[in-house]
User: What shape does this take?
Amino acid sequence: MDTNKKLLKSQSLKDLLGKLTQSGKTVYAPKRKGDQVDFQPITSSEELAQNYVQTVQSPKSAVFPRVEELFRFRNNSDGVKLTERDVKTLPDMVLFGVRPCDAAGLQPLRAIFTWDYQDALFKSRMEKVTVISLACQSADEYCFCTSVGLSPGDPTGSDILLTKLSSGDFLAEIVTDQGKSLADSMTELFLPAPADAKPATLADVPIKFNHEELSKKLASLFDRTEVWVGQSLRCLGCGACAFVCPACACFDIQDEGTTHDGVRLRCWDSCGCSLFTLHTSGHNPREVQSQRWRQRVMHKFSYMPERLNVFGCVGCGRCSRACPVDMNLKEHLTAVMEVKA
Amino acid sequence: MSDANVYLPYLMRIDNITDEAPGVKTFKLAFQNPAEAEEFDFKAGQFGEYSLFGEGESTFCIASSPTRKGYIECTFRQAGRVTNALANLEIGDTIGFRGPYGNIFPIEDWKGKSLLFIAGGIALPPMRCLIWNCLDLRDWFKDVSIIYGAKTVADLVYKHELDEWSKRPDVKLITTVDPGGETPDWKGDIGFVPTVLDKVAPSSKDTIAIVCGPPIMIKFTFPVLTKLGFEPDVVYTTLENRMKCGIGKCGRCNVGKYFVCKDGPVFTYSLLKELPPEY
Amino acid sequence: MDDLRKKAKELLESKQAGVVIGYGNGTGDRVRAIFAQSPADADKLVFDDRCLQNLTVYLSKSEVRKIGKPAVVVTLPGLRTILQLASEKQVAENDIIVLGISPEGALLDLPGFKAITDYVASANLDYTDAEMRNLDEVLKLSLDERFQFWNDELSRCIKCYACRQACSLCYCSRCTVECNQPQWIAVPSHDLGDFEWHVMRAMHLAGRCVNCGDCARACPVDIPINLINHLLAQVTFDSFGLRSGTSPEADYALSTFRPDDKEDFIR
Assistant: This one.
């Protein structure tokens, strides 16, 4: 990737956020509330969370909200009228301070929402989002970005990638044209980078498995029920992992209102839920949790790479941190690699 | 319909309602917008998402033939929230339709061959589209045979069309009902579809077989076809699975790495054999 | 811990139990539910003050039951759950083996429901001081302030249903929110959908919640959802004198009518 390197002085962070907010953009950034750090709209750099490894939820709601109106319907004496969303009213957003894994997480979403049929709402939101990410200086035992082809300093998916320097200032890598126009509009903040700029040490995330080999191995493990049962016995079948995951995009469609006046909504759903695949007849192709756990793993690490050329996981570890029963994905995948033929 | 919103349905007017069997209805639907009617095209095998605004969407195949322009038909059985609400609609009411989705029966590849259609119960609708499509192109094919059965005489759908097909000299039609499902004046066969298929033993030479039915019927029909000499790659069927978006995004209908809404609903028996039991 | 491992091994070796549901070490300093099926597995069992998850939730999981007769490690909330499930005809005495653990960490001898009932009767079921403080923090707010408090907390709710799935008393194979004829509770996670869900669930648990706290621990966005259940448990006790999980034959307060009930609307 062709990058352009600039210097953002640490005291310029305040001005940067000020300018972004004033330009009418909504800035989403990690903000602390009690023990948790999560994405919230912010207006000043003082609100930025410090000293954390990862937010609880991913920033995917910026492009794939929890609840989204698809269209409105009205049925009266004049007949049925459908009113679409005006995509021009969607907000311009900046995702600030996301981790490189989260920036990369936009890729699997894009792959799904533009597979043959173009999801216009998703695409409009993507066009209105600028991603300014922050490379990771610390990781925890749940992170495994390096096992899925990413790293704490990977620019994939970012418009601008900031890396903290040992001086406390930031190296700003301008990754995309969108990032370039932003930096060019604030040249007093994005200064030329000195040749000897020394990034602070990035987080060490040891590689636990090779994702291409994992994908190959999974193709032969569908029928190994004992593997899937053993891994998922403690799984409760909630949707926490799917909802905090930056790459999960499964959704439900629900009508609300009456037949005369209402709205069709899209909302998050999870393949882990017991009734996800239930037919109206009562037949359920995935009626036990081990089948649903297998689906989660296969979809992300086998089906998506094969059909869409992208992995459905960025190794952020959120699923494992959020899981009430410690379903540690890194551990499960490492165990899959060790399953004997 | 706007190109921009793939979830926005066409508005369709119900022009006719036929009561096919207890709990089973056929809707004949016209596009409210004549320009859309003009532009709309589909191929046999494809399905759509039919909606009642305020209740939701339901997945049915397009049961009319693509050779007949200006309208589409769907046949459904009352089973859940949306189908029960649809069953209460009247001629003149408006519903939504998104489609056509899914893959198609490769009719072009079947030119010069004989066709054997095998269907059971409520699974005749996807076949009916295909049968009419093929009959409208009758001289493409050699022999055309249809074996169709239902639980009882009352459960046979498209009774009017069964009558039409039975009167055509260029179609061999065998209808059957399950043992015990016959009425005193029933003139057709009595027996489960796979049993009747075995008895009739149609030739597999240069013949394409298309099978649609409830899972139990399919399960017992495939071995009979194999016994009769049909290779798996000339046997076609359709799959159903729980759907929402119909366009490969909501993550619900996949059978292994294949999505019923994109890689199906039409599958050959040879591909079906590779699929994991997730449907 | 040694007694527990010894007992677990004994149960598995003699095949009295097909699986021992207990705690084992997890990621970092977490513990997680483990399903010991061999004496070697039993060595992985641990018990200390990290062990809070109410493991009776796995008694309603078909894939766990398929392994064999379960022996389950439980503390007081789990023991109450077993009695409550028994009173709701979800578990029979011979179905399970109970490995009760006292607050001091000792293995209890609880051979059947009578022993468990006696044990629970002797236990202190009042809320701890810390729990009362949390409850009081909310109760001291005016109704308007309380509504604001819950609006703030529930604004984070993503309707992941971790609270429901973690709860041992939420065992319905088709939850009310999953009924669509009619759609009683809105599915999407907007303000109304979130509120309807939590209010409905609280009502369905009124007088049944055993104060295990799993719902709040399971919540990925740290909503103290158990406070609602605690309050309703208190209200149910004050109104009907009944506490959940105290007898395997208790009638559920909110669905039982007696001719001598003080309310006269039904006469």
